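User: Fold this; tokens only.

Assistant: Input:
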Amino acid sequence: QNASVSTEDERLAFTNALEGLKSTDPNIRRRAAEVLAALSPRSALPDLSQALRNEADDGAASAMAAAISLSGKDAASPVFSACMDTSPYLAARLAALTASARMDESGLSLLHALCDESPQVRRRAVVLAASLQPASLARILESAAADPDASVRHVAQLAGRGNQPAPKQNSAQNGEPPESRSPLFSPRSEA
């Protein structure tokens, strides 16, 4: 075990938290992940990984992903990737995606998430991409713009508009109507 689990009380808390990951109560699983994060997340990585892959509760999945993140990028990234590929639970995949995106400056995890079966995961990937460098963002927006789900395409369109450079002159000075100045303006189709 890790050196941070040094006293008998800490070892007992660590062991109880590992058992807590198996509880039927999501609040106990969340709290167990928080305890493991405080004590020794790297020592608990196999248990946290398995628990995250099988987690259906948003709060517990987020706590598990946060604990896994504390193990460092080299240890956590493969765990998140495997979870996103194998977990049948939306909460687990969303938590893994969010935590992975915080560690991945290249955007590859987000690009990979655009292949998820769930439009909710694909939309989250587009939203998280907003913090990336323009080149990485462009790759993700390009892929999302061709998504089969209209909601994913819409989020990609909005994200792309929000990242366009500001105009050099005020639109009103150019004689354009005020509604065309908004970066989120989208003309309504006439019924």
